[in-house]
Every structure is written in structure tokens, then in C-alpha cells.
Amino acid sequence: MVPIILTTSTTDRQMPEFATELTNVCLRRGSVNALDNVSLAIPVGQTTAVLGASGSGKSSLVQVIIGLLNADSGTVTTLGVKILPENQRELRRNIGYAIQDVALLPHMKIRENVTLPAVLGQWSRDRQDERLAELLALMHLPDSVLDRYPHQLSGGQQQRAGLCRALMLRPALLLLDEPFSGLDTMTRRSIHEQFLELQQKVPISTVLVTHDPEEAIRLSQFIVVMRSGGVQQFDRVQTVLDQPANDYVRDLMTGLSGAGP
């Protein structure tokens, strides 16, 4: 599988009010309504978890936000720009994207994997090295991993390296599609701590796809609960816990009312 390498603009730009907005978005995949009249306004500078079971439309939502899938109807505005076929490539220059299987290139060492977006963006070697050092420190990765190949790293180290690549060019929006789901409990807990540390030091508008309510509550400020392609509830974490919109949300959050941030 060839990973999608997303680069980002190096020029400063004024951030819009919302990181991404969807208005009456519908998407069919075969005979399934992957997204069914979805309207959302994801806030800037916050982490928003997209929570739901397999097949609920979580990944489809993220792929519409980034322009990897085109909605059949409705509008999608990401980073203040309405997504159209002719501007998708340019828009992705401001988005970081990481997925569950990491998609590090197996024939490249970690240094080459992480810096690849910067190479494509024609960054100088000094600038690459400076950013690389910052990211290794943020993700608590030793310098020694840079000269290893992906298969020589643990699952947790691979995920950290994947996050480093997604963050390499200081994206305005970070999309994470089940990035921690394949890790053991201890490793997930460690990476959660580093993710929270990252968000405190460098707040980034983030959309985190997860099937785990506890992960959503721990890492995000807002939650979108999805089911069968539709949004069941979208609100602040504590509001979803205290005032679930329906029985489905209530059942999903049962026993977690004391787990909010």
C-alpha cells in the first residue's frame, strides 16, 4: 500500500472560525449510505473525536473532509476553503493525516519516512533536521530510530514515527483515523500521554476517529457520535456524558459519566 503523503504550506495564514464545516453531506458507497445528511462545524484549535462502531461512517467522514472521497451532495469546507476537485491537492498541503496501519514506506529508513513531506516541499536539509529534532522530542523517540527501517521498530515506535511524519510540516489540521487501535494497552496509554502533551504545547485542530469511548473522552474536547452514516450527537464531551441525545448515545457512554476531562 502506498501511503498518502500530505504536505503543508509554510506561509502563515489566517485561520477560519471552523477547522472544517459539512452542510447536508450525503455519500453513498455501493448500496450503503456512508454519510446521511451530515452537518457539522468542527472547532479550531480543539480535538474532536468521531466515535462509533465499525461501519458507522467515521472513516468516510474524515475522507470527505480531506477530499479523498467526494460527497454526492452537500458542501464541505475545510480550513475555510470549499472542497472542489480542482483544489483538493492544494488544500492537502495544510493537512496532516495518519491512519491505523501507519503506512511507513518499508524500503525507507525512519529519517527518510518522516522527512519525506519536507523533501517534497523542498525544505533545506538544515530546516528538515531542526524540525525532526523537535518532533522526536515531542514523541519521546530516541535519535537511534532514524537509521532503522520500520520493521525494526515496535508498534508504538512506528505509530510515533507516523505521527511525526503527519506533523512534519506544521499542519493547520490533523486527521487521525484509528491511529492507536492496534496497540497494546500499555503502549496506547503511553502514546495518549504524548498526544495530550503535544496538544498542550502546540494546539492543533484535530479530528480523531475512534471506536473507543474512553479514548474519545480522554483525548478530546468535543465528540461526534455516529451511527449508520448519521450524526447522533455532537457536543462538548461533558455534555454528551451528562445529556445524551438518545438511547444509543446513552448506552455507548454508560459507566463513563465520571470519566470526562
Describe the structure.
By secondary structure, this protein is α/β, with parallel strands linked by helices. It has one domain: 3-Layer(aba) Sandwich (Rossmann fold), CATH 3.40.50. Helix content is 34%, strand content 25%. The chain is built from nine helices and ten strands. It has helices at residues 58-66, 88-91, 110-120, 125-139, 155-167, 185-201, 213-219, 237-242, 247-253, and strands at residues 18-29, 32-43, 47-51, 73-78, 81-82, 95-99, 173-177, 205-210, 222-227, 230-236. It is globular and about 50 Å long.
Taken from the alpha-carbon principal axes, the silhouette is globular
- Estimated share of beta-strand residues: 25-35%
How many structural domains can be distinguished in the coordinates?
1
The CATH C-level class name: Alpha Beta
Low-confidence stretches: 1-13, 257-261
Read across the widest sheet, the strand sequence of neighbours is 6-7-8-3-9-10
Question: Which features would summarize this protein structure in a list?
Answer:
disordered C terminus; 261 residues; 6-stranded mixed β-sheet; disordered N terminus; alpha/beta; 34% helix; 4-stranded antiparallel β-sheet; Rossmann fold
In short:
By secondary structure, the protein is α/β, with parallel strands linked by helices. The protein is built from 9 helices and 10 strands.
Topology of helices and strands:
Blueprint: E1 18-29, E2 32-43, E3 47-51, H1 58-66, E4 73-78, E5 81-82, H2 88-91, E6 95-99, H3 110-120, H4 125-139, H5 155-167, E7 173-177, H6 185-201, E8 205-210, H7 213-219, E9 222-227, E10 230-236, H8 237-242, H9 247-253
Parallel strand pairs: 3-8, 3-9, 6-7, 7-8
Antiparallel strand pairs: 1-2, 1-4, 4-5, 9-10
